[in-house]
Design brief:
With 110 residues, this protein is an alpha+beta fold. It has five helices and three strands; from the N terminus they run ααβααββα.
Length: 110
């Protein structure tokens, strides 16, 4: 108990350990999908996530800027295709993020 009689809530301190870029559901979903697949194209991610081009592009750019994603640009039938891969840092960050979320969930007692 705290000096005021409130219960201690150590789980809330763990919230500070969560990494900002993965707190958004779309960016977390992108990383989870890419952890299960070697690579996914922009159009494949768009189809699965149901995001608009602009929204998905902004989320992918943010993850790429953080070093979580690698992108390979190729051509298929003379059309550009962007293939996204989770980087080693992205895998490590995702693993840590999910570990913290798991701890928080376990501490709820539900």
């Amino acid at each position: 108990m705290s000096p005021r009689g409130d219960p201690e809530v150590p789980a809330l301190e763990d919230l500070a350990l969560l990494h900002g870029p993965l707190e958004h559901r779309v960016r977390l979903a992108i990383c989870v999908l890419l952890s299960r697949h070697d690579a996914m194209s922009f159009s494949g991610l768009k189809r699965v996530l149901g995001e608009t081009d602009g929204s998905l592009g902004a989320h992918l750019r943010k993850l790429e800027d953080c070093g979580y994603l690698l992108v390979d640009r190729t051509y298929r039938d003379r059309r550009p295709v962007s293939w996204y891969h989770l980087s080693r840092e992205g895998r490590d960050r995702l693993r840590r993020h999910l570990g913290i979320l798991t701890q928080l969930i376990d501490q709820t007692g539900l």
